[in-house]
Amino acid sequence: VGGTATGGMAGRILTAVVADVASWRTALALVGGLGLLATVVVWLALPPSRHFRPGPLLPRTRLATYGRHLRDGVLRDLFLLGFLAMGCFVTVYNYVAFRLEAPPYLLGQSATGFIFTLYLLGTVSSAWVDRLARRVGRAGALRVSLSCMLAGTLSSLATPLVLVVLSVAVFTVGFFAAHSVVSSWVGARGSHGRAQASSLYLCAYYLGSSLAGAAGGVFWDLFGWSGVGGFVTALLLASLVLLRRLARDEASAVLAQSSVPG
């Protein structure tokens, strides 16, 4: 998760600066070239798998595993949480740049792009939340993370530039912490067919990026930043409702485990 934060920051800043001095087409071509370079590096540099036991790639078996995961209510809630959290994150970062380029701030593309250095906070919060989850449980850590996102969203409605940047910083800390908790929870819950569980989570996660991120643009066009803030707040409140169910399941699991004779 820390790596995704660093990579996301680098890509955002790089495209902002290149688009400012050249064009958005040049920026996209550069990012595409870096993607191809990364493919070659991964192909050549990664060591071979150890203790890998290949299994048959039978469609019926894979579909049965996907079906089992989708029938699991806890996993469904976790997938939906990934959808909502990533939708919030992409919405905020997509449209905060437009806000900072408009009055009263009137920042240039390069200056606006450097707000993405806040992604670096994700490398810190994704490690910090692991220790928090060990103390208060995954649901407790997720509650803190989503609350940070909500606090950052609401405070970003203020006008002073310093407060806007600090608000986005708090929001970013909360998002990467939430993503770390949810993704690890998916891996633990989907212990049989873990790869399929993770793939469903990532599918939901990036659908949130695409669908909610695009829907946020409608709110930006109609209502400006207050519309974006209201949209993201609604998604976060829905996330907290889902979390109540997950917290009950976690509490039940802990109770069941403690009642097993040791």
Task: Record the SSE blueprint.
Blueprint: H1 2-21, H2 24-45, H3 59-71, H4 73-101, H5 109-113, H6 120-155, H7 161-189, H8 194-223, H9 225-258
Provide a short characterization of the protein structure:
With 262 residues, the chain is mainly α.
Output the keywords.
262 residues, 9 helices, globular
What report would you give on this structure?
- The model is unreliable at 255-260 (pLDDT under 50).
- With 262 residues, the protein is mostly helical.
- It is 83% helix and 0% strand.
- It is built from nine helices and no strands.
- Helix 4 (73-101) packs parallel to helix 8 (194-223).
- The radius of gyration is 20 Å and the shape is globular.
Query: Kindly, what is the distance between the CA atoms of the first and last residues, rounded to a whole number of angstroms?
Result: 35 Å
Tell the overall outline.
Answer: globular
Q: SS-based structural class?
A: mainly alpha
- State the major sheet: none
β-sheet strand percentage:
under 5%
Strand runs, count: 0
What percent of residues adopt helix (DSSP H or I)? Answer: over 70%
One letter per element, helices H and strands E, the order comes to HHHHHHHHH
Mean pLDDT: 88
Q: Can you count the helices?
A: 9
Gyration radius (Cα, Å) is 20 Å
Uncertain parts: 255-260
